Amino acid sequence: MTAGGKALRASTVLERAMLVTVELPDEAPPRSYTPFHASLNFVYEDEHLAVLDKPAGLVVHPGPGHWNDTLVNVLVGRGTELSGGAAAEAGRPGIVHRLDRDTSGLLVVAKSDLAHRRLAGAIERRAVKRVYAALVWGHLRKSPVDIEAPIARHPKERKRMTVAQGGRHATTHAAVVARFAHADLLRVRLGTGRTHQIRVHLAHIGCPIVGDREYTFGGSRRVTPSARKEAERLETLAPRQLLHAAALSFTHPVTGVTLSLTSEWPEDLRPALAEAAGGDGANLLAQPNPLQYLGFFASDD
Question: Are residues 117 and 171 in the same domain?
Fold first, then answer.
């Protein structure tokens, strides 16, 4: 990209009436995916699609900084057939929806173009139900609550998102499952699927996710001074954001069968959840299925 014959840096701020020239190659370069091996837990799989329990720390598809160590690379290394089409041309073969790198939980990938088109359409129609478990600082003022606030890229920090006028419409539904001294365990359902939506929306209403260093660094400072020490201990026990894609339900795009899948609270987040629970923490740690024990899957909202 050039202006006045000079190459422009990515950080260049364009001025009004500036003439910019963009030169594109005659054809896109061939795209290949280096096989990468990592352990994956599949909760459902057939010839049309697969649903896996994505571990935290795994980027979903190739991009800057992660070209060869993503979920797509793992699936290629496994020999999994992935859909093509526009998603593949964009470097996301088989990827119907995404989870942040440090968010764990259920993710569906398409193996055929037909399954991909129909799943993408179902998500657009909000016919795919995606439910997350989130431990947040503070307490919701009311429960359930619908959060409707437009989301856009942050004007100064381009890797972050923010609530801003003129952003894309975004809706998040949240309800309290368990209330602890300094935090709430929420059941969060997506109405739309914007980048970082849950994290941005919960921080926007004053209940940021525990352990989210990108949007809520120093979240323990939001509690009262007398409770600061206990809250800071909870924060140190959080290895990442306490956000987990715990339930996924949709109509199979080919067979028409309803799939309702669940994933329990992950092991690496259990100490922080137990700390938040206070006196009931030991009992919670002893439970093989803490979300089920707390009644997380009982609701059908």
Answer: no
CATH number of the domain within which 106 lies: 3.30.2350.10
Identify whether residues 186 and 300 lie together within a single domain: yes
- Residue 299 lies in domain: 130-249+265-301
Please compute the mean of the pLDDT values over residues 241-264 and round it to a whole number: 97
CB burial string 119-135: b at 16+ within 10 A, e below: bbeebeeeebebbbbbb
Q: Within a 10 A sphere around the Cβ of 209, how many other Cβ atoms?
A: 27
> Stretch 121-127: mean pLDDT, rounded?
93
Say how far apart CA 40 and CA 80 lie, in whole Å: 12
Q: Is there a catalytic annotation at residue 46?
A: no
* pLDDT tens readout for residues 66-117: 888 999 999 999 999 999 887 787 788 999 999 999 999 999 999 999 999 9
What is the number of domains present in the chain? 2
Contact 187, 178 (CB under 8 A): no
Q: Are residues 162 and 270 in the same domain?
A: yes
Convert the pLDDT of each residue in 204-213 to its tens digit. 998 999 999 8
Please tell me which residue in 26, 69, 100, 184 is annotated as part of the active site. Answer: 100
